[in-house]
Write a structure and sequence with these properties.
There is one protein chain. The chain is an all-alpha fold. The protein has a single domain, classed as Orthogonal Bundle (Proton glutamate symport protein). About 75% of the residues lie in helices and about 0% in strands. It contains 19 helices and no strands. Helix 3 packs parallel to helix 16. The longest helix is centred in the N-terminal third of the chain and has 40 residues.
C-alpha cells in the first residue's frame, strides 16, 4: 500500500513538473488508472454481500455459546460500550470540525468520477431518507434477494443475517452442528477470496489515487490534513478522556500508570499495524506488569483483539461522514441525523462483523458507503493517508483491549497493579 502511494506521488510530481498533465498521453494514462481503480473496486463490491452474511451469521451462531458465562458477558458488554462511545466521539468530531465542507470545485475534483450519485440514491434522498420510519422499513426488505442486488439495501442483508445466525444457535444440537460447519466453511472461502482481492490492493490504490492527485494537486493537502486531524483528535479524546475515566472510576486504577506500562504494546501495534502481532507482548505485560491472572488475560485479550475494534469503528464513522460532507457540498443534498445514525449503526456492526478479515477497515467502509447509497469509488481519496492512520487506530484498538482486561479483572476481585492511592 505504501509503495503504491509512493509510486503515485512520483508519477504525479513528475508529470506536473514536466507540465504534461493536459497532454493526450497523460489523459489516456489517467483513463487507464481509472479503469484499474474501478476493476479493484468491483472486486470489493463483489464481496460485500457474502462477507456481511457469512461474518454476521457465524458471529451470532458461535457467540451464543459464550453468553451464559459471566466473564463472556462482561467482556462483550465492555466491547459494545467502548465501540459505541468511540463511534459517537467520531460523530461529534466530524460534525464539529466539518472536514468535508470545502470549496465546491475542489470537492468535485477529490471525488472525481464518483462525484455523480446513483439515481436510486437521489430518489431516496428526495423522498424519505431522512425519515426514521424509512430506516426501519429498510431493515426488513420484502425480497432478500432483491436487497442483495441493490447497494442501497445492505441494511436488509444485515437484519436477515443476524436473525439467521441467532436461530441457528437455537436449533437442536445435530442440526446446529451441520449449519455451523456449513457457514464456517463459507466464511473461510470468502476470506480466501478476499485475500486474493486485497493482494491486488497496491495496484488498485495506485489506480484510485493517481487521477485524484493529478486533478486536485496541492489543493488536496488542506482538506486531507483537516480529515487526519479530525481522526487523530477523535482517537486522543477516546483514549485520554473515555478510557482514562473508565480506568479510574470503574477499574479503580491509575490511568496514566497503565498507559505507561503498556507503551511496548503501543509501539508494537503502531509499528506493525497488526493487533495479532501485538498479542504476545500484550499478554506478557498484562500478566507480569499489570498483575492480571492468566485465566482472565488469556480469555479477554485474544477475544478483544479478534472482535473489539473501537479505533476502527471511530475511523469508519469519520471517513463515511467526511465523504457525505463532500457530497453535500457538490450535490447540495442534506444528510440528516437519521442518515448519520445509520452510519453509527453500520460502524458498530461492521467493526465486529469483519474484524477478522484482512484489511478489515477497507471492507467495512465499503459496506457502510454502500448502505448509505454512495458510490464505493468515493473512498479512493482516503487511501492517500490510510497507512498512516492505520497505525494509530491499531494502537487504539490494542490499548482498549488491555484496558478492558484490567477493568474486567478488577470486577472479578483481582488485585492488579497501580491501584488508585498507591
Amino acid at each position: 500500500m505504501v509503495s503504491a502511494l509512493c509510486c503515485s506521488l512520483v508519477v504525479v510530481i513528475s508529470l506536473r513538473c514536466a507540465q504534461l498533465v493536459e497532454t493526450p498521453c497523460t489523459q489516456a494514462f489517467i483513463q487507464g488508472c481509472e479503469w484499474v481503480g474501478k476493476f479493484f473496486m468491483n472486486g470489493l463490491k463483489m464481496l460485500v454481500v457474502p462477507l456481511i452474511a457469512s461474518s454476521l451469521i457465524c458471529g451470532m451462531a458461535f457467540g451464543s455459546q459464550s453468553e451464559c458465562k459471566r466473564l463472556g458477558l462482561k467482556a462483550f458488554s465492555f466491547y459494545f460500550l467502548s465501540c459505541m462511545v468511540a463511534v459517537f466521539i467520531g460523530l461529534g468530531m466530524v460534525n464539529a470540525l466539518q472536514p468535508g465542507h470545502i470549496d465546491q470545485a475542489l470537492a468535485a475534483k477529490i471525488l472525481g468520477q464518483a462525484n455523480t450519485l446513483p439515481e436510486h440514491f437521489i430518489q431516496l434522498s428526495t423522498e424519505s431518507t431522512s425519515k426514521i420510519s424509512d430506516f426501519f422499513l429498510r431493515l426488513f426488505p420484502s425480497n432478500i434477494f432483491s436487497a442483495a442486488a441493490d447497494n442501497g439495501q445492505i441494511l436488509g442483508i444485515i437484519t436477515f443475517s443476524l436473525l439467521f445466525g441467532f436461530f441457528i444457535s437455537r436449533l437442536p444440537e445435530t442440526l446446529r452442528e451441520v449449519q455451523l460447519r456449513l457457514w464456517e466453511g463459507i466464511q473461510q472461502i470468502i476470506r480466501n477470496i478476499t485475500r486474493i482481492v486485497i493482494a491486488f490492493s497496491p495496484i488498485g490504490v495506485f489506480g484510485l489515487v493517481t487521477p485524484i492527485l493529478l486533478q486536485a494537486g496541492c489543493d488536496l493537502l488542506q482538506p486531507l490534513l483537516v480529515f487526519v486531524g479530525t481522526v487523530l483528535l477523535g482517537f486522543a479524546t477516546y483514549v485520554l478522556i473515555f478510557l482514562s475515566l473508565l480506568l479510574r472510576f470503574v477499574g479503580k486504577v491509575r490511568p496514566f500508570a497503565h498507559f505507561r506500562a503498556m507503551l511496548p504494546v503501543w509501539f508494537m501495534a503502531f509499528s506493525t499495524s497488526s493487533s495479532a502481532a501485538s498479542l504476545p507482548i500484550a499478554l506478557d505485560k498484562i500478566e507480569t506488569v499489570s498483575g492480571v491472572s492468566p485465566k482472565i488475560a488469556r480469555f479477554t485479550l485474544p477475544l478483544g483483539i479478534t472482535i473489539n475494534m473501537c479505533g476502527t469503528a471511530l475511523y469508519e464513522c469519520v471517513v463515511v461522514l467526511f465523504l457525505m460532507q463532500l457530497y453535500q457540498v457538490t450535490q447540495g443534498i442534506v444528510f440528516g441525523w437519521s442518515d448519520q445514525l445509520m452510519v453509527v449503526f453500520m460502524a458498530l456492526l461492521t467493526s465486529v462483523g469483519v474484524a477478522g478479515i484482512p484489511a478489515s477497515a477497507l471492507i467495512a467502509i465499503t459496506m457502510i458507503v454502500s448502505s448509505v447509497g454512495l458510490p464505493i469509488e468515493s473512498i479512493g481519496i482516503v487511501w492517500v493517508v490510510e497507512r498512516f492512520l492505520d497505525m494509530f487506530r491499531t494502537a487504539v484498538n490494542v490499548l482498549n483491549d488491555t484496558c478492558g482486561t484490567v477493568i474486567i479483572a478488577r470486577s472479578e476481585g483481582e488485585k492488579t497493579a497501580y491501584p488508585i492511592g498507591q
